[in-house]
């Protein structure tokens, strides 16, 4: 899955230089604004030395989510060891499995396909969450209830092209368009993946490489970032995107509904070390307040503030949590 294009490759490379034991791993950026309790209240009777290590990966969305976690547990009264900029998926996973991390946000599809080595993801979001929750229980990790945020693959169009494309809103409608309109911009990995371009077209009843399906001349292979701008410029009608990417909104793209449920689920979910959760069961309520409010649309907006507007992830997380009332300014 996409982990190997945007996430896991970075993690594999980083793992070669990252020392997880001893003093080799240290927080890269521990900045968060000062915080006071809001609807997240201080936990009564919490020991003065209660501390949690919050772990997160080093790309925009994860930085924002992890800073939300830091702010939440600080509001609840914990001291925090902030390790929210770890370079890669596997190092974060190793920290959680070793007990050196207490909490992180992980994607259901990432765990299922990458850590658990399953051949195929589960498109149904709830079933995918149930599957990883059950599988990780024996690893000492507890998956709390997931956020609606589903950072999966998606196909987007230039919003202003919607009328030209017969008002298209879902992937199954691509087959109804003239062949000349079935033009795609995708990255090389998506073009060749066993769960990418070709099986997606097959799922929707369209044959790749045929005059009446999607001729190969209709498919442009581009770098990941170039796909977004090429789609926005109308160089192709359909572009491969990540569903929660901030550029979707900033470039006025519109994601089509995966109405035959082809793409695996990638719901962001708070994971807590089971021993930590046993010691501090109140954490379930803390993250249970936040997760239901993190939708794909919300994350597009927050990611855009960082990637397009240049804001600091910790400030973006802080402003959103204050706005939602979870925390207050001190």
Protein topology:
Blueprint: H1 3-15, E1 36-37, E2 51-57, H2 60-75, E3 79-86, H3 89-98, E4 103-107, H4 108-115, H5 125-137, E5 141-143, E6 153-158, E7 184-186, H6 188-192, H7 197-203, E8 219-221, H8 224-232, E9 238-242, H9 247-250, E10 253-255, E11 268-273, H10 274-279, H11 283-290, H12 296-307, H13 313-324, E12 327-328
Parallel strand pairs: 2-3, 7-8, 7-9
Antiparallel strand pairs: 1-12, 4-11, 5-11, 6-9, 6-10
Keywords, please?
signal, Osmoprotectant transport system substrate-binding protein, elongated, 330 residues, ABC_Gly_betaine_transp_sub-bd, alpha/beta, 5-stranded mixed beta sheet, D-Maltodextrin-Binding Protein, domain 2, 13 helices, transmembrane transporter activity, 3-stranded antiparallel beta sheet
The Cα radius of gyration reads: 21 Å
Could you report the average pLDDT, rounded to the nearest whole number? Answer: 89
Question: Strands of the largest sheet, in order across it?
Answer: 8-7-9-6-10
CATH architecture of the largest domain: 3-Layer(aba) Sandwich
Q: What is the number of domains?
A: 2
DSSP helix count?
13
Q: What can be said about the biggest beta sheet?
A: 5 strands, mixed
Protein name: Osmoprotectant transport system substrate-binding protein
GO molecular function: transmembrane transporter activity
InterPro entries: ABC_Gly_betaine_transp_sub-bd
Keywords: Signal
């Amino acid at each position: 899955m996409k982990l190997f294009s945007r996430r896991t490759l970075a993690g594999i490379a980083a793992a070669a230089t990252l020392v997880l034991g001893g003093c080799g791993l240290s927080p890269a950026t521990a900045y968060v604004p000062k915080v006071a309790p809001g609807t997240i209240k201080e936990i009564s009777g919490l020991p003065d030395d209660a501390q949690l290590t919050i772990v997160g990966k080093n790309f925009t969305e994860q930085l924002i989510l992890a800073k939300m976690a830091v702010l939440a547990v600080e509001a609840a009264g914990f001291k925090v060891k902030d390790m929210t900029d770890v370079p890669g998926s596997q190092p974060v996973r190793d920290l959680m499995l070793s007990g050196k991390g207490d909490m992180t946000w992980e994607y259901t599809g990432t765990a299922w396909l990458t850590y658990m080595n399953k051949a195929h993801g589960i498109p149904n979001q709830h079933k995918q969450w149930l599957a990883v929750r059950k599988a990780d229980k024996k690893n000492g990790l507890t998956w709390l209830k997931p956020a609606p945020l589903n950072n999966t693959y998606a196909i987007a169009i230039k919003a202003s092209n919607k009328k030209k494309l017969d008002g298209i809103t879902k992937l199954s409608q691509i087959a109804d368009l003239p062949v000349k309109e079935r033009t795609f911009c995708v990255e090389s990995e998506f073009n060749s993946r066993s769960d990418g371009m070709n099986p997606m077209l097959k799922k929707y009843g369209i044959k790749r490489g045929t005059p009446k399906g999607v001729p190969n001349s209709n498919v442009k292979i581009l770098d990941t970032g170039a796909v977004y701008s090429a789609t926005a410029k109308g160089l192709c009608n359909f572009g491969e995107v990540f569903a929660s990417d901030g550029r979707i909104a900033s470039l006025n793209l519109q994601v089509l509904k995966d109405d035959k449920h082809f793409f695996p689920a990638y719901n962001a979910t708070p994971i807590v070390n089971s021993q930590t959760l046993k010691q501090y069961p109140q954490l379930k309520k803390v993250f249970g307040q936040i997760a239901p409010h993190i939708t794909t649309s919300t994350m597009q907006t927050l990611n855009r503030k960082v990637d397009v507007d240049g804001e600091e992830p910790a400030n973006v997380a802080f402003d959103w949590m204050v706005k939602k009332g979870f925390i207050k300014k001190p």
